[in-house]
Amino acid sequence: MSVRHERSRPADRRVRVQGRPVDTYPALSPEVTRGSVRRVTVVGEEILSRPCQEVTEFSSPELSCLIDDMFLTMYVADGAGLAANQVDVDLRLFVYDCPDDYGIRHVGHIINPVLEVPDPGSRRLIDDFEGCLSVPGAGLAVPRTDRAVAHGFDKDGNPLLIEGTGYFARCLQHETDHLLGHTYLDRLSKRDRKDALRQMAEHREDVFAQRAIKAASLGQ
């Protein structure tokens, strides 16, 4: 998921890493210094349209490397979240660095997530801007619930429970959709989907150029 300009990572020091509050945290997560930039897949590629495979091996160097690469790739693409199939890896995993509507920054990764949203009788749907790193240069309003909880595991197999409200709840839903083989385009009307694809056609080359510039600035 892409970061909306006015919702860029908050300057405020309230940060939750892997669901837990921390006293201080750098502007760029430590994974970035270890990662390499990977190509971001684009809507229309087959890997984005099928459910991802469960992660079955934890605590491996390959899994840690993938997470590091995903964090750096997310930052270079100016994202708030990134799923593994967006870097052409067929695994149920996403990373995130996303603010909520209270100015709290949420940073982490989650593996094999299972999402819970409020029951239909108690949920509140919010129409808000949503973009996607795999739909470069496009963004439209998408209805999402204002609360979500993700259950899953960290890279060492420890259980995680991540709670989100507002924009971070949107991020959790957006990235979990990716792992099920869906993009936000699947939640749009035919007319809005056509509009999003038109936006992408008009702006994707500019987006790719900006990513290349940012990668170069980070020595990639």
Could you list some keywords that capture this structure?
Peptide Deformylase; two-stranded antiparallel ribbon; 7-stranded mixed beta sheet; 25% strand; 4 helices; alpha+beta; single chain; 220 residues
As for the CATH topology, it is Peptide Deformylase
Alpha plus pi helix count: 4
Query: CATH class, anyone?
Result: Alpha Beta
What is the architecture at the second tier of CATH?
Alpha-Beta Complex
Output the helix-strand order: EEHHEEEEEEEHH
Shape: globular
Radius of gyration computed on alpha carbons? 16 Å
Whole-Å distance between the termini? 22 Å
Structural class: alpha+beta
> What is the average of the pLDDT values?
93
CATH homology superfamily: Peptide deformylase
- The total of beta strands comes to 9
Uncertain stretches: 5-11
Largest β sheet strand count, sense and barrel closure: 7 strands, mixed
Proportion of helical residues: 25-40%
Please indicate the count of domains. 1
Estimate what percentage of residues fall within beta strands.
25-35%
